Amino acid sequence: QVQLAESGGGSVQPGGSLRLSCVVSGLTFSSYGMRWYRQAPGKERELVAAIGSVVGTYYADSVKDRFTISRDNAKNTVYLQMNSLKLDDTAAYYCNAYRTSPKVYEYWGQGTQVTVSS
Predict the structure, then answer these.
(1) Cα Rg of the chain (Å, integer)
(2) CB burial string 23-32: b at 16+ within 10 A, e below
(3) Vertex 64: Cα angle to 60 and 70 (nearest 5)
């Protein structure tokens, strides 16, 4: 059974930092690309950052130079370091594992809430 367990969310003031973690089990972690999505109330879920199974990262323009995605294959964990947090970063953050070969596989975590408020 595949499980993705996010942690690290919480409440923080603008300008603060948080580090999200997502521990993955039940699949060969190193073979999957990993993504962080977020969804704010009343808004669509949006892709925040992604990291490939081998190389490559992607960041949404809204988080470039503030967020950093990384992975530790030995720990089956993907991280999202969030710095200089803004009010607009308030959302539920979801971890996503995906691969497209030999067919599409995609799994989701339950999410962790990040609230940025003064």
Answers:
(1) 14
(2) bbeebebeeb
(3) 85
Task: Report how far residue 75's alpha carbon sits from residue 60's, in angstroms, rounded to the nearest whole number.
Answer: 26
Distance CA 38, CA 47 (A): 7
Question: For residue 66, which phi and psi values (nearest 5 degrees)?
Answer: -120, -35
Distance CA 37, CA 93 (A): 6
**For tokens 């990291």, what's the residue?**
51
Q: Amino acid identity, residue 51?
A: I
- From first to last of its 118 residues, the chain has per-residue pLDDT tens of 999 999 999 999 999 999 999 999 999 999 999 999 999 999 999 999 999 998 799 999 999 999 999 999 999 999 999 999 999 999 999 999 999 988 899 999 999 999 999 9
